[in-house]
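General statements about sequence and structure are easier to judge against a single worked case. For one protein, we set the task of working out the structure tokens from the amino acid sequence alone. This step matters because it turns folding into a mapping between discrete strings. The amino acid sequence and the backbone structure tokens for this protein are reproduced below.
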Amino acid sequence: MRYRIVPTTFSAREQVFRMNPLNSTKREVGRPHLRDPRFYQIAVLSILAIYGIAILEFDVTPSRAAISIASAVGFQLLATWLLRLPTFDPKSAMISGLSLALLFRSDYLLVLLLASAVTIFSKFLIRANGKHIFNPTNFGIVVAIVITGEAWVSPGQWGSFALFALLVSGLGLIVVTRAARSDVTLAFLLFYGAMLLGRGYWLNDPWEIPLHQLSSGSLLIFAFFMISDPKTTPDSRPGRIAFAFSVAAVAYVFRFRFFEPNGLLYALVICSAFVPIIDWVSKGRRYQWGDPKGMIGAPSVAG
């Protein structure tokens, strides 16, 4: 039996597409920005910052907010140069700067710069198994509060009215869905909400009290934009659920046993230290920016 090889011809566009190794799997050609949830997060945080400064009259000036963003990007550039990284990626730094503008308060510019520096450099210096351990912004805020005593987070600035809670929830859900981390956010809200409702029931409080606590803007910002960080949460879904429960439980103890207003932030720092152990016990696929499925890729130090 004789076989005949029939050559296959492709158009010029098909040949260029097939020659590119990046196109070996199905991709969103022409729309790479839609695959990276950091663009959505930058847009959402920018909207919240503008809304907070212009409508809610945050106790932060536009110039101080600009310094928060510029300093974070500047420290990211400095770290890129010092560590001789191949590329400079400002997206994560912009997210950190916007988060500092929304949450962090201090009367001293040097304290703000300290928080910004710790936020950025912690991504590069405090790492385990190819990923940074702590949520950068959360870690920077906690370090600045603990070390200086001249910094704070103002939870009351957001108010607790339903319209803003709905706005944060809706926009935040877009971000965590694009980052494939909606499970840890929803699990945390479920666990923490159950604890607040259970406490209210035990104390015979009216339901308005725990519902008021759950609609806090600072709580929703934490749930949708901090604990959901895909680079610092456990790789596996069971690990993320356990992580969410741990953060909720520790935060509850801080808040209602020690009456610590920054209990959420402290709880996230403490529980994040155990993420490498969770990843070792419960294996999962490492998240890589630009891949909404959370596929593992080469370890990155860009953050």
